[in-house]
Sequence to fold (365 residues):
Amino acid sequence: MDNIFIKRAWYMVAWADEIAAGDKHKVMVMNAPIVLYRDTKGALIALEDRCCHRAAPLSIGRIEGDDLRCMYHGLKFGRDGRCVEIPGQAKIPPHACVKSYAVQETGGWVFVWMDEFATADPALIPPVEALDSPDWIFRRGHLDYDANYMLINDNLLDFSHLAYVHENTFGDSPLYAQQRPEITKLDRGVRVSRWLRNQPLPPSSMKAGTGRADRWMSYDFLVPGVLLMKSGAYDVGTAERCNDGPPDGIDAIESSCTCQLIHPITETTARYFFINGPATSTGTSEQAEHALRLTYAAFREDKEMIEAQSSTLTLDPYVKMVPVSADAALSIFRWKMNALMKVECDALDAPLGAAKADSKRAAGV
Ligand code: FES
Fold:
């Protein structure tokens, strides 16, 4: 079983509107307890959720201005994690501090950088769609898994399972298993694209069962577990007109978008956030609700299979897997994850600039 954690990456940990002024929102990422709260101007602060005195959670502490006070013995911490007050003690030791994490709020998503604050690179924030994008009618959800997060990544990198796991929900075409997609390597991931020619309209369509279409889908899957996908139904014959390439500039009968982000809670648990919905130009709120219900039903099918898979792997974590051609995208992605992990390990004693250069090389940049 894998226990790969990449520290130099942004992990989606919460929806921004879950953290109101005065709230303390606790999350766990890669075994690290984190508490999020807002300062007096509304900006997010992320601190280690474990007091440096006797390890009480700061998430049951008290917000005081921009600071957070532990409500066990009263130590108070600033936004940078440094202890600024010890009741009854004038001198504060320099090592009296908790870890402070870089945090970014964008489009309704909250991301935390899991390495040292100074290494945070905003350019690596995944290009997710905003929840309130005028182009899409999004609905959102999340699921918790009792499984290593890489098993969920694997699942999303090989849609051949749609024909079997999702036979009664998404898997309306056996072509998902029979026809291999186009795979392109990216700097920090892989792009998976495919046409399914002359197929019924997808189950998420309110017109499902009433007509046929050429169906296009393309997604980028990025480190550490980010799926960004657009799909559309087009007039039959469009795939041929496009020479099986992207349908750029061609109007879809209907189209949809989804963003799905996973973070490891521990080595054996994970949280899976997602949004999806139809294009504003071709869809309705009713369709968005229908798509969300279908998505939850399908994702619960994934969860059941992946947790069962995780249980059998627990019996023998070193069991030999037999690769098949459908594993191509997940093999590329795992190679990138392993390469980045190795760079992080090798760079522990290296200067940051050198480590960043190595990281880019390992990612094939
Ligand atoms: Fe936090 Fe003692 S455990 S002040």
Observations:
- Helices lie at 149-156, 175-178, 238-241, 285-315, 328-346, 352-362.
